[in-house]
Amino acid sequence: MKPELAIIRIKNLRLRTFIGIKEEEINNRQDVIINVCIHYCADKARRSDDMEHALNYRTITKAIINLVEDNRFSLLEHLTGKVLELASEHEWVEYASVEIDKPHALRYADSVSLQLSYRKPV
After folding, report:
1. Domain 3-103 has CATH 3.30.70.240
2. Is the pLDDT of residue 94 over 90?
């Protein structure tokens, strides 16, 4: 890992959305827990202390909240892919991963989760 590479972690973002294919899931919002990891070169931000040289994690988080709360999803794969698109859309992002948990999806498990990742083409 490059020394100037920064890692932003958005941990346990708890939201509610419509997710699933069963009638109960279609009609009722469910909890999801979102974890995002974003790697980007922060050398300029480190040296300048200027917000223009940094990724704004608040802006990214607000976009994720709007996406999740204002839409319906049948598949966890689709929801995770859409959040990953937001997490990796800035040109500075070299790597991003998103894991989304769907608590109570299985009777005897704490949750079901899905993780997807993006790596900037070389």
Report:
1. no
2. yes
